[in-house]
Amino acid sequence: MQKLTQSQLLKHILQDTSKDMQDEDIIHLLLEQSFASKQQPKQTFLTKLSDRLAAFGGSWSFLFLFFTLLVIWICFNVMIQDPFDPYPFILLNLCLSCISSFQAPIIMMAQNRQAQKDKILINNQYKIHLKNEIILQDIHEKLDKIIEIIETK
Predict the structure, then answer these.
(1) pLDDT tier, 43 (very low <50, low <70, confident <90, very high otherwise)
(2) For residue 9, what are the contacts with CB-CB under 8 A and spacing of at least 6?
(3) Which of 62, 47, 61 is nearest to 99 (CA)?
(4) What backbone torsions phi and psi does residue 22 show, to the nearest 5 degrees?
(5) What is the pTM assigned to this prediction?
(6) Which end of the chain is more exposed for a tag (fewer CB within 10 A), N or C?
(7) Is 50 exceeded by the pLDDT of residue 35?
């Protein structure tokens, strides 16, 4: 079985569909690149960390933890005699701004990686649908031949 590029393979299928419908090699070539083996870059420690941080940052547990810490911060600074962050809570605003400035790029990096994975998955699903269409056309041709044989008898 010769190795064909994807464009050569599609041209080959579109040109000679009638005689190649029975060739299982072409169908298997369509699915040669699977979802798992598609040039996915190795995940470094930082990419794994950013994925975990993005997953935690978009969870209910993060929201409850963050809300609890805000309430504790505010209550602590209101109740003590000499607060380190009095009422307008300027230090709290600074901390919230820093957290959001780090959290947004981390979430965007995780979304970009997920978009790449989705692109690979969509390409694989396209190949599967193309394979199914070829098989269905082959079945239709075989049924038409059977019907012709039955009608001629």
Answers:
(1) confident
(2) 26, 29, 30
(3) 62
(4) -90, -5
(5) 0.58
(6) C
(7) no
Higher pLDDT, 15 or 141: 141
Whether pLDDT at 12 is above 80? no
d(CA 23, CA 138) in angstroms, rounded, equals 10
Show Cβ contacts of residue 116 under 8 Å, excluding neighbours closer than 6 positions.
40
Task: Give, as one character, the DSSP assignment of residue 50.
Answer: H
CA angle 96, 98, 104 (to 5 degrees): 95
Structure tokens at 34: 């699977």
On average, the pLDDT of the chain sits at: 82
CA angle 90, 96, 98 (to 5 degrees): 105
Rounded to 10°, the helix 60-79/90-152 angle is 170
CA distances 41 to 121, 122, 124, Å, are: 15, 18, 18
| 31: amino acid identity, one letter | L
What token pair was written down for 27?
């169908």
Cβ contacts of 117 within 8 Å, gap of 6 or more: 40
